[in-house]
Amino acid sequence: MKKILSIAFLALLFASCKGNTKTDSDKNLGDQLNIKLVKDSSVVSVKENKEHELNNDNAVANYWAFYKISESSITGIPKKTESEIINKFKNIKIEIDEKNVKVGNLCSFEYYKSNKTPVKYYESTKTAKLYESIFLKNGLKLGNSLSVYQSLYPEKSCEIPWDELLVVDNTLVIVFDDYLVFFKKGNNIDQNDCYSKTKITSLPITKNVINGNNIWNQLDCTIANLDTKDYLRLPDIKDIKVFIIGNFNFDDFTYTLVTLKNNIVISKRDIGFVKEGDNGNTISEFTEFEINKNYVFNLDTKIKKGEDFKVLKEEKFKIDENGLIVVVK
Fold first, then answer.
1. What is the pLDDT of residue 315?
2. d(CA 290, CA 272)
3. Each residue of 183-197: pLDDT tens digit?
4. Which burial class, exposed, middle or buried, applies to 179 when counting CB atoms under 10 A from its CB (0-12, 13-18, 19+)?
5. Could you tell me if 185 and 173 are in contact, meaning their C-beta atoms sit under 8 angstroms apart?
6. Could you give the 3-state DSSP secondary structure of residue 256?
7. Sign of CA dihedral 95, 68, 85, 249
8. N or C terminus of the chain with fewer C-beta within 10 Å?
């Protein structure tokens, strides 16, 4: 996996910074990690975004927000990666009122709604059974009937994949690049279902833990609009959930601390990153972090001085009971 390779490269890199001798091959591997990342860490307080939430077929409008994509592709031969698909749909909201379907700012059409049995919709018992198994793997029951939204006037239909929308088990579904894409109604996406499955990593968390191959887990949902799914979940602070989201792409390598209360992001801050040097394929600065058993975050930022790295600054902070980041002296 890319994240395992990336962690291994980072471990090699930091070991090199401490004076260990590496072979040319090791250095070349480490060079692949040298990247330019976000320059500043910041704390962001986010207020709850209140939307109208109408949850029955006779309501003025129903809003559907991106939830997730299927656990695997349908045939196993997608053209796009999971991340590319998630990025394409993660900010799209679909509105269905008594007459029209509106897909964000992309398109809209006047619809007619039909209810069909799975066999009638998929045109064979075999195909219906196949999709029934796919839906079950993603926590949905196909049941005996599904709702289909199509344009009342075919010449005014939206382009694929918005030309036909399915509603299965209170979830709106489209098919895109061999994946099923799921949307949940309004703000009713039950993030607690996602969080309940996350593994909590006990304190303290050292650099050895952070760089471990098997410590990072995969999220089923998006937190704070961060693209990556790799996470460490720390023990809760009363009703505050604490996540460290890791981005292990070679062109973007960061660790981001996120705190949530009632599923709303309270604070977000980058706590680990690497900056490339002026000459390319070199590192000019990097930040490492650890978390002690008392929940104090220790950040060390080091900068290149000649052949060695010198400590540029040291930071300490903790998270208060409101989910805010507080400096520790």
1. 94
2. 10
3. 988 644 455 557 777
4. buried
5. no
6. strand
7. positive
8. C
Query: Cα(8)–Cα(250) distance, rounded to whole angstroms?
Result: 12
pTM, 2 dp: 0.47
Environment class of 108 (CB within 10 Å of its CB; exposed 0-12, middle 13-18, buried 19+): middle
Q: What is the DSSP-derived secondary structure letter of residue 322?
A: T
**Identity of the residue numbered 290:** E
C-beta of residue 198 within 8 angstroms of C-beta of residue 192: no
Tokens at 34, concatenated: 């040298």
Whole-number Å distance between alpha carbons of 80 and 180: 13
| CB-CB contact of 158 with 108 (8 Å) | yes
Instruction: Tell me the pLDDT tens digit for each residue of 81-92.
Output: 888 898 899 888
**From CA 269, how far away is CA 244, in angstroms rounded?**
10
pLDDT at 63 (0 to 100)? 82
Q: Please list, residue by residue across 294-318, b when 16 or more beta carbons sit within 10 angstroms of its beta carbon and e when fewer do.
A: eeebebbbbebeeeebeeeeeeebb
Mind listing the pLDDT tens digit for each residue in 118-151? 999 999 999 999 999 999 888 889 989 999 999 9
3-state SS of 203-250 is: CCECHHHHCCCCCCEECCCCCCCCCCCEEEEEEEECCEEEEEEEEEEC
Q: Is 281 left (phi over 0), alpha (psi -120 to 50) or beta?
A: left
Q: Which of the four pLDDT bands, split at 50, 70 and 90, describes residue 329?
A: confident
